[in-house]
Amino acid sequence: MSLRQATDGAVASSPKAWIAALGGEGVIERSYVEWPSLGIGYFRFDDLTEPLAAPAIDRHYISLTLGGPLEVEGILDGNRLRAEVRPGQFMFMAAGQSNAWRWDRPTEEAQIFLDPAIIDRVALEAGCGHVQLLNRFAIEDPHIQNIVLALLDELRQPGPGTALMAETAAQFLALHLLRRHCRMVRTVAPAGALTAGQIRRIEGHVAGRLDGGITLEELANVVGLSQFHFARAFRKATGESPHRWLTARRIARAKEMLQASSLSVLDISQEVGFQSQSHFGQVFRKWTGCTPAAWRSRARC
């Protein structure tokens, strides 16, 4: 088919620019909202009877058709797809592809734009390696329909925790797409135990950071693993969870300071990363059987 260009040759990779290029108009006041891993929009489109080449977008595209039925034709990276799409059905387009479109009547769509990074992250944590999201036309999937409609409700009437809900939904969508609508390119063997060298790197990193918050993500990044694989590999190497291991390091440092320094219990609690003296006292007693003050008195006898 002969293609018109949506732009004058300019590259527009954002979802909003892609929607505008295809003539989308917001149906509600907040027609599009974007979070780090996921964006959602609700748009109306006039018929597009002449094929139009749109810019590539940098996110995976999922649309739930709310109008129609309509006949949709797309050319995605040179591959032609055509289907009659009914209300409640989905289309999927993987990120970064050349794409051209035609449809025969006006429609409304709820659209999800998913960051490819979350697909890669979830695939890695599930031990699947690199995967490719498959292009789909006229797919029925009640699991995705439910999550898209829930996000659409949040778009209409946002409530407490909307951003958290969006990030949770992104993880659910990534895992579901991984299971049902992806092709596995390579697999990753389950992580073994951390090596002695990796443990030393973590110990060195932690030694200078006990006075602050240390996250699982931070520790995983030290040895270049996902959080999921790091937690498993760490337990295999040490017999403990990262959290329990880190708490033991904090208590050991606190004991050293209680015995050798004149700092107050409050100051020591802050030096080993506790936000309050009372929390420090509770954890210290759980680990040692006595309060920090009592332990100091015994240690100095």
SSE diagram, text form:
Elements: E1 4-5, H1 15-21, E2 25-26, E3 32-34, E4 38-45, E5 48-54, E6 60-65, E7 70-76, E8 79-85, E9 90-93, E10 99-103, E11 107-114, H2 116-125, E12 131-133, E13 136-139, H3 142-156, H4 162-180, E14 182-184, H5 196-207, H6 216-222, H7 227-238, H8 242-260, H9 265-271, H10 277-288, H11 292-299
Parallel strand pairs: 1-5
Antiparallel strand pairs: 2-4, 3-4, 4-11, 5-10, 6-9, 6-11, 7-8, 7-10, 9-13, 12-14
Give a quick summary of the entry.
The protein has 301 residues and is α+β, with helices and mostly antiparallel strands. It has 2 domains: 4-184, Jelly Rolls; 196-299, Arc Repressor Mutant, subunit A (Orthogonal Bundle), CATH 1.10.10. It has helices at 15-21, 116-125, 142-156, 162-180, 196-207, 216-222, 227-238, 242-260, 265-271, 277-288, 292-299; strands spanning 4-5, 25-26, 32-34, 38-45, 48-54, 60-65, 70-76, 79-85, 90-93, 99-103, 107-114, 131-133, 136-139, 182-184.
